[in-house]
User: Which sequence fits this backbone?
């Protein structure tokens, strides 16, 4: 099959750019959207060529299956710009492959990899001025696929839309994150869709997260739905725990998203001489480690949140504080990964992709 | 709070009815849609008055949360018309209440009950000619709510749309149903959203159901995700098993939808002198009962599928056939419930609501 390159992609430019109305010094996360988007339709049994078009409304029949059956998947990536104006992505092929893993599990036809990658490149050429350069800001990239096909029958749609939209964004969390370890509600089932970035995984977390927020926590740490004895991950982050000088994180499974930040952190930590262990972590172990002082750090890791230090956790009505560390793994690793992402350091891993 | 009545609802009629193009003698399920729909918007912190409008396209921003986070819920109901042209609903308030149960779990603002019920009545006045009268046909009613609010942040939307659309429909299944008992994939987690009619619950079933179809089964019977030892329910039906002369069905839980057909069947069976037991049913018990001849019947029960006899089940590569019964509970109970729904019999339970 002939591969598509970004120059094959039809581009329709907006007549009125919104860029001058955006305050790039005060960016929230994912609230303002760049001028263009990539769109690509699946119908008649195949994906049709992607196009760059002005960011604008989508019109659907009321019986479109996206409204009824949650048949949707997404990805989250970022584009960075350095002081020379060069533009970079971080491990983008991992997002392409994960989107197709999610697609398969949700019975969505897999997307040709070049439609995604070359489409993204074309979009980021057109909207290159939308990539922020301020420290801590970046262009958040949202690739997503949803069912457009019609009908009130709980079965896969016969038509889909793939879109990439982008949003210049600041930090996901403001400040440290206080988490609640959840024992009643669950994020995902054994044999379910937890490992996929399926839309429905997120909506299911909103209510329990709201309850946690009402109690003063910003995030829920999910535990396994069978015993609730093991920590799994957070809403949009994998979780790391430092006990003495070892960095622990749960193995991924069909319940846990295989985060690109998570696996990068594991490799970076090794390279920095930090001992890592990938193994199940019991809630009781956390509690004990907190009590005897060996719990030094906890942090979340994800594209949106980068590395977000966790200041404490609540469990069964008790609150466990995690004291600040002078030599924090979280800051050390965050500095490393951000330096690689933004072209401020060598990239021995070959993760950075120059546009 | 003043209650809304159907006469308060603004009605905008279509200029061109599609009804003459519909072949009411050859209706599929949920494929053609009536002329009008009810719409109702949540914004600025409240639900605004519903209106009846022509059935037609919905326009949304690409960042609408429905596309990203699966924040959607729905219901399934039917309207029936008898030989006098009188129109009926079946236990509609149970759907209203279940929609709000689902809403709560999905962090969607609950809908005023009268907006739903009076809105539905207004819609069914306008589209009364769309209710089929042929045996086995009815007007399938699809109330649903989805997140319209914008933003690439995994948190509840600030705007929603409630719609009721309807589709004159024939049978959901054609013929008997052969099922596969699933041990690898799961439908829902303990503490998850399985008890809610959340969009994401359905998309997650498509791929495993496709695999089952490829093996010659029409439906999957889900088992609990922890042990896979107990049968739970099917894609859009609760499941009943007849062992000797006792009718068994699983208790509902936070993993299983509390079906209105299921609970009606339990009451009808009691009234018909059929012994019922609500208890967990082991897969191994089914296999053994099939082998020793005590497994007399299995059937699915749901609004769309009414009562659908199951002709056999596959489990670990073996197929277990369920022989036809002369005195089948499935047909006895189906006849009873359909007679009540369609005003062909007394309704001692007060389930039928005349429009
Ligand atoms: C549920 C969940 N876990 C973990 C992550 C982190 O994954 P990644 O590092 O690939 O962004 C995300 C965000 O993408 C997520 O949604
Ligand atoms: C998962 C699931 N189980 C069971 C049912 C049956 O419920 P009811 O009888 O209320 O239609 C449905 C259909 O609504 C369903 O979607």
Assistant:
């Amino acid at each position: 099959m002939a591969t598509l390159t970004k120059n094959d992609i039809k581009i329709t430019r907006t007549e009125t750019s919104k860029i001058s109305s955006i305050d790039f010094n005060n960016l929230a996360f994912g609230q303002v959207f760049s001028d263009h988007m990539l769109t690509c339709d699946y119908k008649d049994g195949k994906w049709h060529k992607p196009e760059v078009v002005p960011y604008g409304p989508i019109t659907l029949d009321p019986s479109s299956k996206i409204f009824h059956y949650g048949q949707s998947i997404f990805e989250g990536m970022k584009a960075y710009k350095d002081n020379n104006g060069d533009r970079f992505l971080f491990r983008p092929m991992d997002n392409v492959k994960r989107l197709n893993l999610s697609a398969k599990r949700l019975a969505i036809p897999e997307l040709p990899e070049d439609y995604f990658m070359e489409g993204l490149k074309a979009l980021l050429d057109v909207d290159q001025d939308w990539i922020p350069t301020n420290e801590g800001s970046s262009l958040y990239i949202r690739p997503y696929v949803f069912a457009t096909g019609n009908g009130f029958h709980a079965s896969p749609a016969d038509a889909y839309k793939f879109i990439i939209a982008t949003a210049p964004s600041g930090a996901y969390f403001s400040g440290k994150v206080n988490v609640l370890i959840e024992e009643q509600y669950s994020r995902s089932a054994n044999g379910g869709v937890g490992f996929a970035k399926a839309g429905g995984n997120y909506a299911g977390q909103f209510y329990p997260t709201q309850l946690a927020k009402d109690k003063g926590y910003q995030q829920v740490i999910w535990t396994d739905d069978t015993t609730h004895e093991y920590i799994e991950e957070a809403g949009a982050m994998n979780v790391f725990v430092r006990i003495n000088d070892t960095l622990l994180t749960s193995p991924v499974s069909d319940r846990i998203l295989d985060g690109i930040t998570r696996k990068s952190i594991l490799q970076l930590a090794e390279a920095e001489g930090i001992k890592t262990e990938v193994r199940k972590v019991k809630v009781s172990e956390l509690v004990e480690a907190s009590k005897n002082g060996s719990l030094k750090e906890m942090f979340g890791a994800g594209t949106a949140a980068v590395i977000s230090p966790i200041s404490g956790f609540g469990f069964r009505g008790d609150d466990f504080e995690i004291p600040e560390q002078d030599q924090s793994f979280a800051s050390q690793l965050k500095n490393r990964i951000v330096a690689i992402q933004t072209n401020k350091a060598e990239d021995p891993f070959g993760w950075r992709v120059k546009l």
Q: What stands out?
A: The mean pLDDT of chain B is 97.
